[in-house]
Amino acid sequence: MKDSIASLTDLLEKVSSQRFLEAEAVEDLGLADQPAFPFLALVGQREMKLALLLTLINPNVGGVLLIGPRGTGKTTAVRSLVDLLPEVSRSRCHYGCLPEDIETGGMDAVCPDCAKRFGENESLIYYDRVRLIELPLNAQLEDVVGGLDERAVLHSRMRLKRGLLARADQNLLYVDEVNLLADDIVDAILDAAAQGTYTVHRGPLAATYRSRFALIGSMNPEEGQLRPQILDRFGLRVIVRGLEDREDRLEAYRRSIEFKNHPQRLANEYFNSTTLAKNELETARNTIDKVKLTPEAENFGLNLIQGLGVESLRAEITLFEAARAYAIADGREEASAEDISLIAPMAIRLRRSSFIKDYLTSQSQEEEELDKLMLDMSSESSKKTTKSKKSTKSKEDQ
Ligand SMILES: [Zn+2]
Q1: Which residues, 6 or more positions from 238, have their beta carbon under 8 angstroms from its beta carbon?
Q2: How far apart are CA 26 and CA 268, in angstroms?
Q3: Torsion 292-294-300-306 (CA) sign
Q4: Which of 162, 281, 335, 336 could form an SS bridge with 323, CB 3.0 to 4.6 Å?
Q5: Distance between CA 41 and CA 258 in Å, rounded?
Q6: What is the CA radius of gyration of the chain?
Q7: Could you tell me the distance, in angstroms and rounded to a whole number, from the CA of residue 99 to the centre of ligand 1?
Q8: Per-residue pLDDT tens digits for 314-350
Q9: Distance 97 CA to ligand 1 centre (A)
Q10: What does the pLDDT read at residue 189?
């Protein structure tokens, strides 16, 4: 690792492109779990890596959709993120009560158990690493949002069971093959992602759960399209293609074989740069609020979106919020027009709907016809009125 690394973007640029020949034999760092493939060891795929980092830095980016064929490293990239994530505070309680609930809503805002804990000066939270929650492909709506706890029903108590979306709170939610999921499940996930909470009703019971997560979806367009209204709700969209460069392909092959045979050795090789990236990411997350867009950046972004005829306001939200995240990842507190142009393809592509364009064109033609018709009719009727006035007048004259 060179000392000249100054920012997260720098790290992404320099570390991943270093040639990896054979890992040095280093002492075992004693990590208990099977390590994940190091994020910085992913060869190429700069846009995918950048999009994933930006969505972790700034939740307002609105998640990422990775679009591409199988075997292009989408799932590996997503799984490799866990080593970069900071610790977050979590509720100790089944209902997800938090100290800030008491601050804003008093003791009634938490469950009796938590009120008791709070009264006894016990902490309602604990610190834990962000986890990667993967939605199983065969998941049912009940698994996703939760439902009646059948074991509790057996003991003649009615209780709701937390669903996957509640478990995804403060985590990463990865939905592979999002285009193959049932519509009601996709809607539930996207609603929770947008609101940060969701409510389940089952018979007389209802419960609201926190569900703040970074959403990452992936799809292979060969296997089916995503409805345009769902596509629109993903912030960044990345087209992931196979590596083109022969050297890169060879390098990717070497690293994946090394990971297969000696996962810990590869993890150790990237341990220092991973730690550095994790710290940089945490700093970026904590300081994103300071970043301002220059007026030139705002103008440039709006011109791009208008020039392309994109209707959805989500284009601006993602474009500007991702540009702010990029600026802070690059160690700056001002997002420029250059940042906008760098982010624009990820934020704006696949947002233009030919259906909406045609629909709006025919709509405005219809409105023109309607206006013309109303104008004609009103001039007809005003002629009649004048006529009738005249006739009245002439009658009066008579
Ligand atoms: Zn509680």
Answers
A1: 47, 48, 51, 64, 65, 66, 67, 68, 346
A2: 7
A3: positive
A4: 335
A5: 11
A6: 28
A7: 10
A8: 999 999 999 999 999 999 999 999 999 999 999 998 8
A9: 4
A10: 92
| Tokens standing for residue 26 | 């280093």
Give the pLDDT confidence of 147-197 residue by residue, as tens digits.
777 666 666 666 777 889 988 988 889 999 999 998 899 999 998 988 888
Active-site positions? 314
For ligand 1, the distance from its centroid to the CA atom of residue 252, given in whole angstroms, is 47
Round to whole Å and give the CA distance between 10 and 308: 31
Helices (H) and strands (E) in the chain, counts: 17, 13
Alpha-carbon span 289 to 71, nearest angstrom:
37
Closest to 105 (Cα-Cα) out of 93, 94, 118: 118
- pLDDT over 80 at 265, yes or no: yes
Two structure tokens written together for 30: 């004693």
DSSP reduced 3-state for 37 = coil
DSSP for 148-159 reads E-HHHHHTT---
Whole-angstrom distance, CA of residue 391 vs CA of residue 389: 5
Length of the chain: 398
Exposed/middle/buried for 82, CB within 10 Å: 0-12, 13-18, 19+? middle
Compute, in angstroms, the gap from residue 115 CA to the centroid of ligand 1: 7
Q: pLDDT tens digits, residue range 25-84?
A: 455 555 556 788 999 999 999 999 999 999 999 989 999 999 999 888 999 999 999 889
Q: pLDDT tens-digit profile of 286-301? A: 999 999 999 999 999 9
